[in-house]
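User:
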Amino acid sequence: PDIVNKQQGCVEISTPKAFGITEHNGSENDILSPVKQLKQGVSIMDIRCKPSLSLIIKYDNTPACVFPESVSELIARGWAKENPTKPSSYVDS
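Assistant: Predicted structure:
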């Protein structure tokens, strides 16, 4: 379904897309959360993060967008998996 946003007397209609963004202006704020993208049918390896973030796969096979400088620490703590570029090692649910 379409979403209607009313701001300052304007009406914008945007339709969520399977690629994690909406149509109305294409800004980075329109990128959906990784879990929402996954629920819309986006493949786990095709999930998009905001430009300043990196995609990781968490210990429970769910995606997350984190700051690049956090990735190695999250892996060391067991919160994220190593080698997220190998799709065969993940379960796409």
